[in-house]
């Protein structure tokens, strides 16, 4: 039998975090995105669940080499996630093409120039505010 590594502890901690948020005792393997376990579906009106799934993507994984290496790395991701939520950060979902405008608070921003171009732009359908991201060479972290 292989020895348990710190990554295995991170995997287990991730599952404990999932259980604490879900209020359930069982998460099958690494299936946090399956409909029956997906917190974004279970708590569909809570946008912070998208952040939770982003966190789980780093620790509740099938292959050890895809997992964070130790609890210190997990703590850093938890701190980063908590900070982003407290500041009102938003993430695009897999099937979502808009986020709330932080300028007017009424409209929604949609991608006008998609990822992969030199510049990426979001426009608000209410106030017209434009968010620009220059020199985007890799997929931004806020797009899942």
Can you characterise this structure?
Helix 3 (48-56) packs antiparallel against helix 4. 17% of the residues are buried. The chain folds into two domains: 6-86, no CATH class; 98-134, no CATH class. It is globular, with a radius of gyration of 17 Å. Helices cover 32% and strands 14% of the residues. The protein has 144 residues and is α+β, with helices and mostly antiparallel strands. The protein has four helices and four strands, in the order H-H-H-H-E-E-E-E. It has a four-stranded antiparallel sheet with strand order 1-2-3-4, with no helix packed on it. The mean pLDDT is 88. The chain has helices at residues 6-22, 39-42, 48-56, 71-86, and strands at 98-100, 108-113, 119-124, 130-134. The N and C termini lie far apart (35 Å).
Number of strands: 4
- Mean pLDDT rating: 88
Strand line-up of the largest beta sheet? 1-2-3-4
Distance between the termini: 35 Å
Shape: globular
| Stretches with pLDDT under 50, minimum 5 residues | none
Please tally the helical runs, counting DSSP H or I stretches of 4 or more residues.
Answer: 4
| Estimated structural class | alpha+beta
Please trace the helix and strand order, writing H or E for each element.
HHHHEEEE
Beta-strand content estimate: 5-15%
Radius of gyration: 17 Å
Taken together, the total number of domains comes to 2
Q: Main β-sheet, in a few words?
A: 4 strands, antiparallel
Fraction of residues in helix: 25-40%
What is the compact description of this entry?
The protein has 144 residues and is an alpha+beta fold.
């Amino acid at each position: 039998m292989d020895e348990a590594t710190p990554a295995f502890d991170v995997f287990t901690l991730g599952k404990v975090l999932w259980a604490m948020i879900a209020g359930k005792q069982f998460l099958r393997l690494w299936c946090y995105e399956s409909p029956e376990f997906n917190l974004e579906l279970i708590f569909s009106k809570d946008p912070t669940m998208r952040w939770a799934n982003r966190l789980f993507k780093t620790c509740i994984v099938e292959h050890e080499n895809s997992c964070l290496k130790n609890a210190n790395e997990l703590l850093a991701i938890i701190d980063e996630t908590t900070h982003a939520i407290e500041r009102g950060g938003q993430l695009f979902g897999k099937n979502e093409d808009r986020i709330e405008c932080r300028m007017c608070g009424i409209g929604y921003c949609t991608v006008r120039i998609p990822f992969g171009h030199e510049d990426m732009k979001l426009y608000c359908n209410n106030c017209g505010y434009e968010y620009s991201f220059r020199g985007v060479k890799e997929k931004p972290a806020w797009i899942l």
